[in-house]
DNA sequence: ATACAGTCTACAGTCACTATAGAGGCAAGC
DNA sequence: GCTTGCCTCTATAGTGACTGTAGACTGTAT
């Protein structure tokens, strides 16, 4: 039952110390108790909450979505459908992104296969980037970072 | 042969005006001539360069990679292999990201399928996020934004 | 007593832009 | 010449989800 310092919480939930403090500033983690000298003190509840956050982040949920999930979690007798729809939405996003990346993969592969070496002047990879518009009928959306 | 203002260049290459100016500040586009009143003036060379940049961005290349590609482009009698390896590297990144997202898709689907409605207290989606560690043997890396 | 790891705050930097504010420029119609 | 209305200019701040840095204090082991 002894409280954890931020470093111990960090190891317990596998989230970096600086990230925990960041989560506090954005209101994702509550403001913890402090020791006499001002150090943050946490309990098992915090380990669980932080682990939940980490898992949700690993599943690609945005901070905002996680805030929603946590809010719903504290109202346990409500209907599950709100939770379900957040997850559904996340799946849709993941699938959109997958489709984009698959198109990219095809194009990069094609470019690279056509490259038979030689001088840059006649490089097929360069040509492919230049003629990108003609490569696939589908237009790419603005690409989010890899 | 009359020069283009930034707005015309923007429409010609399908890149936003603000983005062109941004590319100038980071040295991706050179500093253009100016009219007497200080407006930027561009030529067809700039349309081509900007289009190249846009195509490369659509293929997911980073700004730094594009800088490299442009540098190589201006040395046309060098070997093509440097270009090829930049493209190869990009393909590897795309494929890594694809694998990550496919794992995510499987997990989200499984979570959602298990959800049979009911109260949040017994919600399988919530449970799945909590028990995420046990879901798939593979560990997710830190996830980049969708 | 000293060394060293941990913790504190506050702020700047990342990436690739986007948005906003406020001022000045340019061409067409009246 | 004047007005209308879009175009362009600079400078600065914001985005998301953190990470990195500086400089000072704290806690613990030897």
TrEMBL record, chains A, B:
Keyword Transcription regulation: yes
Organism for this UniProt entry: Pontixanthobacter rizhaonensis
PROSITE patterns: HTH_MERR_1, HTH_MERR_2
GO molecular function: DNA binding; DNA-binding transcription factor activity
Biological classification of the source: Bacteria, Pseudomonadati, Pseudomonadota, Alphaproteobacteria, Sphingomonadales
Domain HTH merR-type: from-to ranges: 1-72
Mitochondrion listed as a keyword: no
Sorted UniProt keywords: Coiled coil, DNA-binding, Repressor, Transcription, Transcription regulation
Coiled coil: 87-121
Name of the protein described by the UniProt record: Helix-turn-helix domain-containing protein
InterPro entries, sorted: DNA-bd_dom_put_sf, MerR-type_HTH_dom, MerR_fam, Tscrpt_reg_MerR_DNA-bd
Cross-referenced Gene3D superfamilies: 1.10.1660.10
């Amino acid at each position: 039952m002894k409280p954890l310092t931020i470093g111990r919480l960090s190891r317990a939930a596998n989230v970096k110390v600086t990230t925990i403090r960041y989560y506090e500033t954005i209101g994702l983690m509550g403001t913890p108790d402090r020791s006499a000298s001002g150090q943050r003190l946490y309990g098992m509840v915090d380990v669980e909450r932080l682990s939940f956050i980490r898992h949700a982040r690993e599943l690609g949920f945005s901070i905002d979505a996680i805030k929603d999930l946590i809010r719903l979690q504290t109202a346990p007798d409500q209907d599950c459908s709100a939770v379900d729809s957040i997850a559904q939405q996340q799946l849709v996003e993941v699938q959109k992104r997958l489709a984009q990346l698959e198109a990219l993969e095809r194009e990069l592969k094609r470019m690279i296969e056509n490259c038979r070496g030689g001088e840059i002047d006649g490089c097929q990879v360069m040509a492919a980037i230049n003629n990108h518009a003609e490569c696939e009928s589908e237009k790419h959306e603005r690409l989010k970072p890899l």
